Amino acid sequence: MELSFERNARVLAPVAMVWAEMDSLQAFLAKSPQLRNAVSHSDGTRATFTAKLAWGPLKYEVDGTAAAEEAVPNQLFVYSISAASLGARYVGHSTLAQASPMETTLDYVGHLDLNHRMATRMRGLFHEVIEEHIHGFIGRVKARAEQRRLADERLLK
Fold it and tell me: Which fold has domain 2-33+68-156?
């Protein structure tokens, strides 16, 4: 089963400030509350974690790995998440573009491949989890970047 998601947002902050909020795997993990107990490897491009999935009364704890696949400063960050027990692989692409000197467009595309025997029955669970992840991640990046911009403006006055 495959699921794809797409979302974009306008951030009232320069590209460099938005990039600073999502420039590494550690920054991504810090803005993903579903991924708990994250432990980064020494190279900083890989990490292991535990995710807590809840769907109604059902709760699952799943171990997984995350990896930074590609990073182009101020433009692109690609990461992947794998959970072997679910036969799941998720790839997220975050792209930044300057809309104006003080405004950035953040485009996020996520793609989930799921090869679990119960995948079709659990489609709703995974749809909710990924939607919540994307919405939360973009919201946190946007809020932090805009707060930093406002703080910088106040310091310069």
Answer: Alpha-D-Glucose-1,6-Bisphosphate; Chain A, domain 4 (3.30.530)
State CA 72 to chain mean position distance: 16
User: Tens digits of per-residue pLDDT, 112-145?
Assistant: 998 877 767 777 777 888 888 899 999 999 999 9
Question: What ranges do the domains of the chain cover?
Answer: 2-33+68-156
Pull the structure tokens for residue 51.
């995710």
Work out the widest C-alpha separation in the chain, in whole angstroms. 59
pLDDT tens-digit readout, 79-110: 999 998 888 899 999 999 999 999 999 999 99
**46-55: strand order across its sheet:** 2-11, 103-114, 88-100, 76-83, 58-72, 46-55, 35-40
Residues 130/3, Cβ–Cβ less than 8 Å? yes
Query: Nearest 5°: phi and psi at 61?
Result: -110, 125
CA distance 29 to 25: 6
pTM of the predicted structure, to 2 decimals: 0.86
Q: Please state, as a whole number, how many other Cβ atoms lie within 10 Å of the Cβ of residue 143.
A: 13
